[in-house]
Amino acid sequence: MSTTINVSVTSPADWKYISEGGSSIVFSYAGPASPYFTGTALRLRKTSTASGQVDLPVLHDTPDEEEPDDPTIVFQRRVTQRLVPEEYLPRLVSANVTEPWLSELHEIHNEHRPQARRGKDGIAVKKAKAVLADDLVGGEGFVVEIKPKWGFLPSSVHLSPRSKLTKTTTCRFCMHAHLKSTDGKDVSLGYCPLDLFSGDKVRVMKAMHNLWDAWIGSSGQVNNLRVFVGGTMLKPTSLVRPQHFGDPTLSDLRDAFTAALLPALLQTPILQKLSNLQQTLDPLDIEGLTALWSEASETAIPPLGQGLAEPTLSDWDAFLDVYHTKHSTMDHDHPDVANLRYYCLAYLLSASFKDCSIMIRVKPGGETSVAVIDLDVKPIDRLHKWALLDAEIVQAYEGIAEPTKCVDRWAM
Ligand SMILES: [Zn+2]
Fold it and tell me: So what's the pLDDT on residue 320?
């Protein structure tokens, strides 16, 4: 875009709080009709109130630029669009914001945020740029956000004798859900991503039933399923009310909900695309990556990823050039130490696809559309955390009396 849209010409009161994640918060435009803002959502960065810092990887090759466009935009343009068909990605443009405008927005809307979030962080008011995107949750019909998570079982090649059986029997999500539930957290117990990714009608229906049950059972606290009507997140409690004769039961609603989404989930190629990318970009498993890292270290072994520079956009360009030309013929069973950084970047990218959401809009006539969101790049220092978390998850699952037997998505 030649001229950047200035969001501070609107009133902060014309924006409605939608939702937030760990690093960003989203508002949708609800003001007077505007060719620039109607049908858009504003995504802003958050900052922890303690540090005032925004924790984002630096992507830019030119750090002396005034304030670069948000990494979400830059990363989508340069990286994600080379992997995911553009028709499934939301339109993102850079927009200018000002500190007084962001402060006022914060003042007006902070009370609408979940209590637990308010004490921890807030809008990063010192940012000069934000992301203006298609409003995927407002508009006609209803919108379902699904965070599908890990859609494959790892190859056993790089797994330790200790973890091999566990990790090839039970998928990562089901093991992690077990750990979280023993910690007393709300989780989508029973939901297995491999069912959702299977393309098999019966299994996809089972996945949707499990997601619905977890959504109802946790009063909407689990983040694998969210439902929006007219831009507002629906609370399961609004469905659980005293029954009158002839009212649909929760089971009826679950069936109608699943039936409305099933055609889109079975027809869209995007689920298969996502699980293929997750798996292809993670050929070694974190265990194989850790082993390769150790092999490359001459003396004391630093934590996985420590000392690796955060990839720049040029690094990502080069990575994708190799990915598209050589990845399929590389011998991933015997990875070359010379490719260590390549495998680390691949794992980072795989993590984005393991943590994204799909948005399914069901229009009043039943027509559906699907988009993929939250494909931000993760900082490289996560690698070490993921290695530790993986070990913790597997350890907590070892020796469990009746492990869940997850069926890989293409196994049927
Ligand atoms: Zn599973």
Answer: 98
